[in-house]
Write a structure and sequence with these properties.
The structure holds two protein chains of two kinds. Chain A folds into three domains: 42 residues, no CATH class; 281 residues, TIM Barrel; 159 residues, Immunoglobulin-like (Sandwich), CATH 2.60.40. By secondary structure, chain A is α+β, with helices and mostly antiparallel strands. Helix content of chain A is 23%, strand content 25%. Chain A is globular and about 70 Å long. By secondary structure, chain B is an alpha+beta fold. Chain B has two domains: 79 residues; 69 residues, no CATH class. Helix content of chain B is 18%, strand content 37%. Chain B contains three helices and eleven strands, in the order E-H-E-E-E-H-E-E-H-E-E-E-E-E. In chain B, the strands form three sheets. In chain B, strands 4-1-3-2-5 form a five-stranded antiparallel β-sheet, with helices on both faces. In chain B, strands 7, 9, 10 and 11 form a four-stranded mixed β-sheet that branches. A two-stranded antiparallel sheet of chain B has the order 6-8. In chain B, strand 10 and strand 11 form a beta hairpin. The radius of gyration of chain B is 16 Å and the shape is elongated. Classes of the chains: A alpha+beta, B alpha+beta. At the A-B interface, loops of A face strand 10 of B. Chain A: One of its GO terms (molecular function) is 5'-3' DNA exonuclease activity.
Chain lengths: 561, 164
């Protein structure tokens, strides 16, 4: 979906700085300056605006205000839905092997529109890789104009897991990434897991926001990677990242990469799907249940548990997006090896790969686009639009190309208008609301050479109850599956389901999930919450192709008047 | 029952278990009924139940926090009565009958019946839950074929890929 609609990208800065008083008048673009003058005359600029832009007034602003500057401006012909992957390693990571262009060529062939190169932060990368990868990325952009190639890095969050950090291309993309890595990477700084480390993580996110406001870079985003894998991303840390700058820290991986890692031995790695096979350590958050260390239908426990951690964030009324990525290091069944004599420690990169047996059956990754997709509703084909779409929460994710397209719309019953993913519907008290879910079914084979068959679509609904009193809470009581729609065998190319939400007397959110129906189990919070959710993946026996799910971000509704 | 605590100064489980085994070697395995790790403030501390009162060998730091955590019914058992008897694939009934393990659970599922088969995989680390020594398991492949239960805590957690 979305292919054929591409036009040449442009480097339009995504942030409007007019309302941001930390940017001086003389630094504004002419359009921004005139908007600021207008706002000044209207009395709209003041302390509250500044506080909101610094992230201090998050709770008061709600999802609509926090969901990005482009909120509510749906293009006449709808959004351009662009599939991507924000978690990809290259030869500039010690545990990976491919050239940038290898990943880009595969991503393009497998249907991706955007991708982020995220080599591991660390001493070698901070010194060498972060700079040396840039010309490779610039060359790949020129060679593949049909794919947006961002530069980022996989940040070792001080005191926690890894995260994707990436920036809008520009003159200072390397300079800012390098300063960020040298100042805030847990591996570079030798971090542990104490309060000082948590504070350093928050300062790192704030640094990125400041770099945008100071116009050093046009935009920057943060998404936490494999958040539940080792139990070391505590709920209060995740909330602290979000609140450090909600324009930068926007989400986490709903599904980790390494989706082939559960293929059985001897023809596969025989590990946990996503390489989720761990157990608690001294650095783990003690409140997490043992189930959190495994994946469910390929998804991270934080996202897969209906009424769980992700829902507890959404219940605060603040956007938090999910993604699904490859985490490509070495793909399952690889027939190449690192070049002979490669020396990452000294050089900061691995020599180019060369053909070489034996075929690697212990690798657990897929190429970008081959299995996992993060699909965003962009206003146009540009770096800025992809970043804005992610920030706005216009996102759905799938595995194995389970669906070809998704249009989720919340509207007043009888209205043709309404809002889509990430948006907030404001509805007068007493008016009825309905959720319309239109799914383009897969009609062509995926990269495992079968046409995936969607069996069921679930609607999940929860109340927005405001800021969490307990920053370590990871459940929310009202969220549950409210409706399941079966997809009939003769459904054709498209199915449309309408869920009557009814009269809305309180703020709520709705999100959508679907499955091929091969593996289901009662959710961890019980059958009344999720009667047929994803099953816990079996370590050493998890064929990812026969357990496919898609998840959407939420759409919000708020009664007014 | 005598209880001693030891501060290891280690943050990693393998390192702390190494200290544990050295200590057990000093005391003699028969003297040790139960040896546990405890996560205390980012460190891994040890507690040992011994058959008779034994002094902490010279040069080692006592671990009061581990003793307290043990008294509160917590701890991850590295050595326990009968641990050496548990090898290969066993039924739940045999696991509980031959060792100090009192209960077997299955993640995201109901407790297994006595005939359910558990592959020990050479690495059992049952956890004290409110003082009850409990082995958490998950569905998995048995050595030699077929499906059954495997310990939740695996010795090989894919450390080659732990840095990804």
């Amino acid at each position: 979906m979305g292919h054929g609609h591409h036009h040449h990208h442009h480097d339009e800065p995504p942030h409007d700085h007019a309302a941001d008083l930390s940017v001086k008048d003389e630094e504004l673009e002419p359009g921004e300056l005139s908007r600021r003058s207008l706002m000044r005359r209207a009395g709209l600029l003041g302390a509250a605006t500044v506080a909101a832009s610094a992230g201090a007034a998050v709770a008061a602003t709600g999802p609509a205000a926090a969901s990005g500057p482009d909120h509510g401006r749906e293009p006449r012909n709808g959004y351009l839905w662009l599939s991507g992957d924000h978690h990809i390693h290259t030869q500039y990571s010690g545990d990976a092997m491919y050239r940038v262009i290898d990943n880009v060529r595969h991503a393009a062939a497998f249907g991706l529109d955007w991708m982020v190169i995220t080599d591991h932060g660390g001493p070698q990368h901070a010194r060498i890789g972060v700079e040396k990868v840039n010309p490779d990325i610039v060359a790949a952009r020129a060679e593949h104009k049909d794919v947006l190639v961002f530069q980022g890095l996989e940040w070792n969050i001080p005191g926690a897991e890894h995260a994707t950090v990436f920036v809008h291309p520009g003159r200072r993309e390397v300079e800012v990434l390098k300063e960020f890595e040298n100042s805030y990477d847990g591996s570079v700084k030798g971090s542990g897991s104490g309060p000082a480390d948590e504070a350093l993580a928050v300062a790192g996110i704030a640094f990125l926001g400041q770099a945008v406001r100071n116009r050093r870079i046009p935009d920057a985003l943060f998404l936490a990677n494999h958040p539940a894998r080792r139990g070391i991303d505590s709920p209060h840390e995740i909330r602290a990242w979000r609140d450090a700058d909600p324009n930068v820290a926007i989400g986490f991986e709903g599904a980790p990469g390494h989706q082939a890692a559960g293929m059985p031995k001897p023809l596969g790695p025989g590990s946990g799907r996503g390489f989720y096979a761990g157990s608690p350590s001294g650095a783990s958050f003690p409140g997490y249940p043992l189930e959190s260390y495994r994946t469910f239908g390929g998804f991270d426990w934080m996202t897969a548990t209906v009424g769980g951690l992700w829902d507890s964030l959404l219940a605060e009324g603040l956007p938090w997006t999910i993604s699904a990525n490859s985490d490509s290091h070495v793909v399952y069944g690889e027939t190449a090896t690192r070049g002979p004599g490669t020396n990452f420690e000294v050089n900061g990169f691995h020599d180019d790969p060369v053909y070489g047996q034996p075929t690697t059956l212990t690798a657990g990754d897929f190429w970008p686009g081959y299995y996992s997709r993060t699909t965003v509703g962009a206003e146009d084909f540009s770096y800025a639009a992809v970043m804005n779409a992610l920030r706005a929460g216009r996102v759905w994710v799938d595995h194995g190309h389970l669906i070809a397209g998704l249009d989720v719309r919340l509207r007043e019953t009888g209205s043709r208008r309404g809002v889509t993913l990430g948006g907030t519907l404001e509805v007068r008290k007493g008016r009825r609301v309905e959720l319309v879910v239109e799914v383009d079914l897969a009609t062509r084979p995926n990269w495992a050479q079968f046409v995936p068959k969607l069996a069921r679509v679930d609607v999940i609904q929860g109340d927005v109850t405001g800021p969490a009193a307990d920053r370590d809470v990871f459940t929310t009581p009202t969220t549950r599956v409210v409706k399941s729609f079966e997809v009939t065998a003769n459904a054709g190319n498209k199915v449309t389901f309408v869920y009557p939400v009814g009269v809305v007397d309180r703020p709520m959110y709705l999100r959508v999930r679907g499955t091929d129906g091969n593996h289901s189990a009662v959710g961890l919070l019980g059958a009344p919450v999720d009667p047929a959710g994803p099953r816990m993946d079996v370590v050493g026996d998890a064929d990812p192709w026969v357990d496919l799910w898609f998840y959407s971000n939420p759409v919000w509704v708020r009664p007014v008047g | 029952m005598n209880l001693i605590g030891l501060s290891t100064g280690r943050r990693d489980l393998p390192g702390a278990e190494h200290v544990l085994h050295e200590l057990v070697a000093l005391l003699g395995r028969p003297a040790v009924r139960l040896a546990c790790t405890h996560f205390v403030g980012g460190f891994v501390e040890l507690s040992l139940e011994t058959a008779a009162a034994v002094p902490l060998p010279e040069g080692l730091s006592p671990g009061e926090a581990a003793v307290e955590a043990h008294r509160l019914g917590g701890g991850r058992a590295v050595l326990f009565d009968g641990a050496e008897e548990l090898t290969g694939v066993l039924t739940v009934e045999a696991l509980v009958g031959r060792s100090a393990i009192e209960r077997v659970t299955v993640l995201a599922g109901a407790d297994p019946g006595p005939e359910a088969r558990v592959d020990t995989l050479g690495h059992l680390r049952p956890v004290r839950v409110g003082g009850t020594l409990t082995l958490a398991t998950t569905p998995g492949l048995l050595t030699g074929g077929g499906h059954g239960l495997v310990p939740f805590e695996l010795a090989d957690q894919g450390t080659c890929c732990g840095g990804h």
